[in-house]
Structure to design on (146 residues):
């Protein structure tokens, strides 16, 4: 549990740095592995975070990542937000206090489920949901599930 809290704090610090609240890119380079594994799902024009992390676009590129929720599950931290133009979810994987993997989703509803077999079959519940997206305006938008 302590590792989850530490991982959550690291990801929260990353967003603060990206928003220019602390240390900016010097801080980002200390939190993210140089060989970061990245995966993206969404329109190519929405690869805002990767453009920030690679320095292709400056902090003030018009798209601000301000998470409205940050949840730690195991070695992953899931963040989600609504920027006004797009709903987004980020999944950060950490190892030894360093972000090693990043998955970015735009305008997609995600569900994280635990499919590990239970030692006690009578305690096992099918498809135990660990986390689920909470996008705004679900009734007016089409957000496919993954």
């Amino acid at each position: 549990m302590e590792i989850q809290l530490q991982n959550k704090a690291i990801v929260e610090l990353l967003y603060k740095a990206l928003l220019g609240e602390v240390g900016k890119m010097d801080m980002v380079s200390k939190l993210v592995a140089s060989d970061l594994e990245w995966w993206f799902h969404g329109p190519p024009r929405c690869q805002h975070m990767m453009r920030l992390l690679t320095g292709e676009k400056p902090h003030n590129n018009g798209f601000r990542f301000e998470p409205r929720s940050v949840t730690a599950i195991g070695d992953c931290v899931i963040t989600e937000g609504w920027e006004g133009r797009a709903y987004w979810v980020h999944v950060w994987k950490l190892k030894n206090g360093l972000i090693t993997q990043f998955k970015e989703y735009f305008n997609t509803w995600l569900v994280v489920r635990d499919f590990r077999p239970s030692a006690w079959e009578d305690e096992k519940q099918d498809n135990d949901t660990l986390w689920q997206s909470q996008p705004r305006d679900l009734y007016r938008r089409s957000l496919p599930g993954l």
